[in-house]
Each structure stands twice: as structure tokens, then as C-alpha cells.
Amino acid sequence: MTRTALALCLALLLVGAGCTGTTGPTGDTTTDATPASAADIAGPLPGISADGVSNLSATLAAGDRNTTAGFVAVVNATVVRPDSRTYWNDSIRAAPGGDTYVTTHREHGTGWNSTLVSWSNGSVAATKQTSSGETTYRLSDPSGPVRPSDAVADVLRMGNFTVVNATGAGDAARLVLRATGPSAAASDRRTNYSGTLRLDERGRPRAATITYVTTTGARNVTTHVDFRLDRLGNVAVERPAWVSQAEWPAPKAAFDFGSENGSVVVTHHTGNTLDGARVRVTDATTNESVTRRVNATLSAGVRLYVYRSDGAIRVGTEQPRDAVALSGTYRVAVLDAAHGVYVDSGTVTVNATA
């Protein structure tokens, strides 16, 4: 899974979320240092110089690498169509290192709204999505740390920029860039790209105001984006209470359950291929229950055998010659290998002489 990024639906895939905790200093302290020049700021940064911008992606990547502190980034946007307006509010709140974070994406128009909230602690991620009055929760594997540029990088890559000047001094020094039009990475339908971007001495985007027009046939859609890096420092992120309601999504697969030569036979019939499985077998007569892990790819037609060997219930992709025939009724459940999520189940009666 790729790293979760928060940005506009027109430009990025967004995983967003609720915000809690306290924030530290912004890092924009005022000093008595000599005002910085464009050359002072741009000189150490890749992809940029006082004369121009050759590779903004490299500059933003350097800014991300140079960030170990926590941060809060916010994006507000308006999408104007001939017959409607859509409003967006996106935010990233990340603890130092970026592995623990909470993001939020809110979108609304006339008579409707939706919210997507995402949280991760570096070991597991969870989302809460609310739309049309319905809320769903889901767990997933973490996508990696978030970085300051995640909220706006795709929007910035759609434009070409030139260096205008530098402002401020010390920690408050900023390199000011002006957009000169759409870049080669922008769609052919995207025109009139304009705005400004402010970078700090480490290449981190601190503020941006961008407007661009997308043309489809005779329709022009204007998107206006305001970004700011609100906090930079000791940011805390707490686990939202709703995470306890989230569950791992169940693979969609169906199995056939039968018997053959004294064994229960479980056959993948249709649906998702499983990268291994946990198979829970319960003897309905004695209530003996075991869960066995199967390290095999389960696709359509692949069989699993449930049998006895050395006095214990076993599960495998083959039926060994020394298998002891089962007798009685058995309940068999197939679970996802990674997280133990229920997939399918069946009940089989086996005759020892079958």
C-alpha cells in the first residue's frame, strides 16, 4: 500500500481523519538575523536556484527528508463549475517521524457532505467514512509515514514556477516562487495555472495559493487551493475512540465443503484468491476445536483436506497415505491468514467408511 496522502480529489488519492492532541511551536520564530536572499535559501536545495526552478519534486522531497518534527498541514479548496460549487477542507496532523498521524478530508456542496477520517500508529491504520448519513469503519495495513508535502505536492507538480524573491530572516526566511503556467505533468485540459508558493530554508512548503482551470468540452472548472503548514514541532496525536469500531475487510471468496475418503474436503469455488488461510475445525460431537494455518495460495479449484494424524486434526493441501479417517460431523470455518477475518464456513458429516 502506498503512503497515505491528503489532497484534492481532482489531483490526489486522499485518506483523511480526526484531530486530537496538542501542538508545539511553529518554528517561525522572529530573530534579529540578516534578511535572507533568494540565493541564501535556494543554494543548498536540490532542483532550485536563485535563477529558477528545474525540479520542484526534488525540492519537495528534500523538504520531506529534512522533517523529523511533528506538523499540522491544512488545505482549503473551492471547485467552481458552471452549475455548482464544491468545497474541500483537508488536514494532516502528524507526530514526530510521521508514522503516527490523523488526517481529515471534508467535502460539501449544496445539500450534501462527506467526511473521510484516517488514523495510523505505524502498525495499523483505520478509516471512518461518513456519507449520506451512513458511517463505515475499516482497518488496513499502514501505508507509511506522512510528510509535509503530502497535502499539496500533486497540485504543485501541475505547475511551472520561477523564483521571485526572499522574505524574512532566520527561521522565518521564505523563498517566494510564482507559478508561470501548467507543467508538462499537467493534463492537456488544464490551463491558466497561477499562484505563489513559499518554501523555507529546508525546502518545506510553508504556504501556497494556487488557481487553475480544467476545460472539458465547453465547460470550464476552476479550482482554487490554499495551503499552509500550520505547525512544526512537538505535535501529539491520540488514538480516536472510533477506532475500536473498525474491522479488517473480509476477502470475498466462497468455498465448497464435502467429504472424500474419510476426510473433509474444502474447495475454493469462486472469488478472491487467498494468500494462505487459517482453518478452524470443530468436532460437533466432542467440541474438540483446532485452528490450523495453511501456507498455500488458495484460488479456484484448490483443495484443502481435513484429516487425523498422530491423534490430532490436521489440515493440508494433500491427503497423506497414513491419514486416519474422520467420523462424525465437523464444522469448518475458513479465515483470512493475516488477520483471522471470517471468509466462509460449512458443516460436513463424514462416515469413517466413506
Label the CATH architecture of the largest domain.
Answer: Clam
Biggest sheet overview: 11 strands, antiparallel
Helix-strand makeup class? mainly beta
**CATH topology (level 3) name of the largest domain:** outer membrane lipoprotein receptor (LolB), chain A
Task: Characterise this structure.
It is a single chain. This protein is mainly β. It has 2 domains: 38-244, outer membrane lipoprotein receptor (LolB), chain A (Clam), CATH 2.50.20; 253-350, Immunoglobulin-like. 5% of the residues lie in helices and 52% in strands. The protein contains 3 helices and 21 strands. The protein has helices spanning 38-42, 56-65, 153-156; strands spanning 48-49, 52-53, 70-81, 84-94, 100-109, 112-121, 125-131, 134-140, 159-167, 174-182, 190-199, 205-216, 219-233, 253-260, 263-271, 274-283, 289-298, 303-309, 312-316, 328-336, 342-350. The strands form 4 sheets. Strands 8-7-6-5-4-3-13-12-11-10-9 form an 11-stranded antiparallel β-sheet. A hairpin with a 2-residue loop joins strand 5 and strand 6 (112-121). The chain is elongated. The chain starts with 37 loop residues before the first helix and ends with a strand. 36% of the residues are buried. Residues 1-31 have low confidence and may be disordered.
